[in-house]
Amino acid sequence: MGSVLEIRNLHVNVEDQPILNGVNLIIKQGEIHALMGPNGSGKSTLAYTLMGHPAYEVTGGEVIFKGENILELEPDERAHLGLFLAFQYPVAIPGVSVANFLRTAINARRKLEDPNDKGISIPEFRRLLTKKMDQLKMDHGFAGRYLNDGFSGGEKKRAEILQLATLEPEIAILDETDSGLDIDALRIVAEGVDALAGPNLGVLVITHYQRILNYIKPQFVHVMFDGRIVESGGPDLALQLEEAGYDWVREKYAGAAQ
Amino acid sequence: MARVVKRRTRTTEPAVPYTRADIEALSQQMKEPGWVTEKRLAAWDVFEATPWPSTNDEPWRRTDYRHLRWDEATPRHSVNGVVLRDIPEDHRAPLIGAQQGGMVAHVGEKVVAREIADALASRGVIFTDLSTAVREHSDLVREHFMTHAVVPEQGKFAALNAAMWTHGVFLYVPRGVHVELPPHSVMWAPHVGATLGHILVVVEDGADVTYLHEYASPTLEQQSLYVGVTELIVKDNAQLRFVSLQEWGAHTFVFTHQRARVGRDARLDWMMGAMGGRFNKDFLEIELDGQGSWARMSGLYFAQGNQFMDLDTQQNHNAPHTTSDLLFKGALADTARTVWQGMIRALPGAQKTDGFQANRNLLLSSKARADSIPGLEIEADDVRCTHAAALSQMEEEPIFYLMSRGVPRHEAERLIVNGFFVPILERVPFEGVRDRLWDAINTRLEAAL
Description:
Strand order of the largest sheet of chain A: 6-7-8-3-9-10
Mean pLDDT of chain B: 94
Low-confidence stretches of chain A: none
Low-confidence stretches of chain B: 5-11
Strand order of the largest sheet of chain B: 2-1-5-8-10-12-14-16-18-20
CATH class of the largest domain in chain A: Alpha Beta
Shape of chain B: globular
Number of domains of chain A: 2
Number of strands of chain B: 20
Largest sheet of chain B: 10 strands, mixed
Mean pLDDT of chain A: 93
Number of helices of chain A: 8
Distance between the termini of chain B: 56 Å
Number of helices of chain B: 10
Order of helices and strands of chain B: HHHEEHEHHHEEEEEEEEEEEEEEEEEHHH
Distance between the termini of chain A: 41 Å
Structural class of chain B: alpha/beta
Largest sheet of chain A: 6 strands, mixed
Radius of gyration of chain A: 18 Å
CATH topology of the largest domain in chain A: Rossmann fold
Number of strands of chain A: 10
Oligomer: heterodimer
Helix content of chain B: 10-25%
Largest interface: A-B, 31 and 23 residues
């Protein structure tokens, strides 16, 4: 049986303001879920909270992954369990190359599994990274560049997908990976994710727009509004949102929120 | 009755435990030529006539050394039986290439090594200790020693060094000679007390050399003092790459005046790593005297504990078509404090000058403090002179980003600090020097994080 990420009645405050007001969601390894919703509905808050950003204060509920309430864990411990977040705004780390960083991340995990591990050898790592870059049709020069430093919007998102491909998580959250990308960049990034999808990867695609879902086909679509998931359905729901926008969601649930 | 508000000033001058008679005795003991003794005594007069710098003087405004205990800061000439092996292996091993062109080493002020490779000696290169040099190469030293670069009038500590210097290094590269193997000198100060070292480098027209100097000492119970002068004379069309590494013990007080003169179409690449010392006040000055001259200065420091470092740099463009490029990067932990005060000057007529200076500090503790004071004094009208200063702290966002990939917090912080130093280390073209600096950075980082 694959891993399951289960979010139960999650309440989160940011700077003392309630942003998530009881989120329930189950994502299984091998499934693709899309989380849609208007701006400010709490989608990114959910992503950061799942990964353990210290600015997000959990005031209620739990998140169970592999039988453990991960809300007690540090972000690196969540990553070791198999959770991954592709950032909407990847952070630049000047002076640290993509390759150096990924090798550090891989070695950190190996060290946790076996304290005597000496780390991945440089040739083995180079082979792995080359394979993943080829898979994503990336220039090999990318590995030597400083992580996200001076990257274009598209390069940043591709770097996120390269990290996803290399670290091989079980559940990946893609936070607005489509934002700020032109259609060509979007296609490249989305095809990359599509290539990685399969029985070993569960994906939560967070997006405002339907267009990325032309490439990454979700089985489940959820709509978030005012810090709750208010609608869930199949791929048709995304198309319906594309056509009708979010107004009907606001009308239907704005009253209920008050 | 009107209340008199009295400004707080130094009430007692430091009682320096040296006298004119000590200088005469020292010079006699070293069997120095008459001109050296005279030069020392003339400098002593300058020293006595120069007031002690205080926080009322602009270059010392942030720099108070009143906690230096002068009674512990006396030169010791009685140390005997010291040998080269007393210096830790790390400081003797070559850092630039596998082989070095020579080794001049001091333990305290005693010479323990004075070696030069045949390849250098046979082409007229001189690499020896300064006391030997004033006896054996008297005219050459006399021509350059405290005449071109540092002069006693530059300040109280320059005058003190000129009067009392206890040991030193002389490197001379004759006209047109390209030195492949880098000479290496070390000053190791394992005893309490004062040492006053003097480095004199002369690179004649069209010559080319890379030179490495190290200062180091263990951490002793009591204070010790180093008062140093470094003179770098790079003549027309010559090239000097100078690396200076400083790993003083935690209770050492350091005062130095270091100045380079760069001739026509000459190049100076000056790299310095400062790690140790309780207190550092360094004047680091480049005089671009010749048309078309070029100089680069790269500084790296890591201050921790209660360390204080004050680096005062000058890039003086005295001729047209001159270029200078300065980058100093430092990390500060605990309650450390650093001051960088940089000045770019372009004299009238120094047209087509290109000067740049930048200082970037990374604070690893909320109790650390770094001051950056860049300055420009431009008297020519067709120049490009710019500066930059930046102060950053460990931010939570990059740490969270790295942790989200499975990197533990401690390792994430280490990566970020290492990344901060990469641009400055990229300017050091010597792998051994870079490795040494990485080791020093990471040792300090382990303690800081």
